[in-house]
Write a structure and sequence with these properties.
197 residues; alpha+beta; Umud Fragment, subunit A; 2 domains; 7 strands; 21% strand; elongated
Amino acid sequence: MTSGKEAYPDNREVFKVKRICRLFSTLFVSLALILALLLAGVRLLGLSPYAVISGSMAPAYPVGSLIYVAPAVFEDVRVGDPITFRLNGGASVATHRVVKIDESKMAFYTKGDANESADGTPVMADDLIGRPVCCIPVLGYIAGFVSAPAGIAAAVGAAAIYLVLSAISAILKKAGKQAPLRSSKRQTHGGKAEING
């Protein structure tokens, strides 16, 4: 007589592997959503993220951190406020603290907290981006890595792994449903064999 219990150890292994696949899939999706929210989703709130690449504003904004900048106009800024601005109207961006305001010229004079002297060039109102409202250490390194070619390749690889794990989980789920059916057939066959004997 063939007992249906023989199928259960296989099912336990299937469920164990399926559980592991589900765990990794959940972790991957959760991390992806958190990063997407921290790096891009904040723009929906009107914030712009910038990675800190120099130590001029340490310890307030250490190298490798990510700052979130809220839009601001000239009238919003006070002496002592940190501001984020375009350098000389170009594409480069910096964040320094305001040490003086010239209202007649609508210009800010700034200085990095860690710098010994003030910046030589004033920041014009048109170059003002906004004021930092939040800083998350280390996240700037992650933002820089994700936007680099190696980071893009890693993201593609992670997505491929996620798809593989999802496929394995689906296959194991299907196998787990079919196993009890095979077990039931074996029990019936075994019962008939015992009666005929």
